[in-house]
Amino acid sequence: MKILLFTRVPESIGRVSVKQEAEKRGHQIDYVDIHTVGVDHTSMAALVDSVKEYDIFHCAAGLGDVVLERLHELLNNSHVFCVNNRTKVASEPGSKLSQALRFGAEDVSTPKTVRSDRPDYSELKKVFGDTFIAKKPYGAKGKEVWLINNQDDLAKIADSGEWLFQEYIESDGDYRIHVVGMKTPFCAYRRMNPPDDFRSNISQGGSAKAITNAEEEGEVNALAVKAAQAMGFDYCAVDIIRSKADGRFYVLEINMDPGFLHVEDITGKSFAKVIVDYYESVSQTQ
């Protein structure tokens, strides 16, 4: 089996471990740095020809919805299996607005959300109360997300362009669930925010630990699978929060290109083995 991965950092520990696992099983896996990908007609045609030499194509980095959708369109009639094929998933899958709309349509529990390009604190307060979350439609690792408590907070960050505002749900951190094959959660863990930050992203100073309560893990896994299926993602990570007020679980967002650097340390499960298992399973269906 031949596998092609687009990535930002081919030499990262995670990518190296996947390559080692694949090669140990007799597969070939090659990496392409997304910063070298051309989008003119000649470059795209050459890229498609080169991808067709592989059995699995996985863009594990942000190439852009439009570019990747076009690339997947050109590969649809080939033998190549495209992970998270952009022609088969929800439109603009990287947009948190698109995700919120899709979750609403598929009855996936999410926080109340408002879109605005001219946010007004007094109007938003009528919807959410004094405190709420502001975020840009695109962003990762807890960036482009703010806690708004008053007009001054909003004035500091609100610029022209599109914004999403969500109800603030008080919790003890959140849960991250990695889902493979649109149906199998291969690991789930809790992330706790640092004392001075409402965000629990590890990249923002949060900590994490494995979930030890089987009932709790079962609930978040089921909700994560429902979210993955709503978006049509083969592989993703789903972020879920549990309300202190009523104990309900809500999906915050879903990431189709999740980082997995800390997964093995937290859960003891090997991402490399799971993802190569998945590549093997889908290659048999082609």
UniProtKB/TrEMBL annotation:
Q: Is Zinc-finger set as a keyword in this record?
A: no
What SUPFAM superfamilies does the record point to? Glutathione synthetase ATP-binding domain-like
Known InterPro entries for this protein?
Answer: ATP-grasp (IPR011761), ATP-grasp_RimK-type (IPR013651)
Q: Which UniProt keywords apply?
A: ATP-binding, Nucleotide-binding
UniProt key word ATP-binding: yes
The protein's GO terms of the molecular function aspect are: ATP binding; ligase activity, forming carbon-nitrogen bonds; metal ion binding
State the PROSITE patterns in the record. Answer: ATP_GRASP
Write down any Gene Ontology CC term: cytoplasm
Where the record annotates domain ATP-grasp, the positions are 100-280
Alphabetical list of Gene3D superfamilies matching this protein? ATP-grasp fold, B domain
Protein name (record):
ATP-grasp domain-containing protein
